[in-house]
What does this fold into?
Amino acid sequence: MMTIEETCTSASVLVAFATRYGATQEVAGAVAATLRESGLEVDLQFMRKVRSLKDYRLVVMGAPIYLSLWHKDAHTFLMEHRQTLTGRPVAVFALGPLTTGEVELQGSQLQLYKELAKHSWLAPVALEMFVGKYDPAKLRFPDTLVARFPASPLKDLPVTDLRDWAAIHAWANSLPAKILT
Ligand SMILES: Cc1cc2nc3c(=O)[nH]c(=O)nc-3n(C[C@H](O)[C@H](O)[C@H](O)COP(=O)(O)O)c2cc1C
It folds into this structure.
């Protein structure tokens, strides 16, 4: 069997993302920009548009959590590319919590772990949960209904964007070491 170094021609990275309202796309863009500053060649793409992974030495996946579930495109991506991703470094991030509270963070992390357990073959080289963004004015159906539900934590929640860009850059900066050692 060939190693990744033999099969891949460049130190290229794919940052593949899924999003509903754009917050994860912006974080994926920041991750890609940080990796480019490290000298890596980086492609940034919607997960659902990715056709082939053959040239990438590292695949970074980012997708948000909705109602305890990881964005369906992330599951589809892992199922479609399982064969190529097996044995190749995969870094995973998700967006979820809307506050910086420890309890909410842990709740979102648990949701992500449960979702990743559906792909037991996957062993990410890095795994991170980032605080997300919420804008009630942008919601589409059925999220509008979810947000109005009396017991919903989103009820009456104003616009919130506590994304920690320093943490996002730091995480992205830690990734090259996972493939270049
Ligand atoms: C209807 C709705 C349900 C959500 N459910 C969850 C959830 O179960 N767990 C969580 O951690 N975050 C949840 N979130 C927060 C989103 O993950 C967060 O807003 C994220 O930044 C959205 O990213 P996107 O703009 O890329 O889609 C929810 C947000 C909305 C609007």
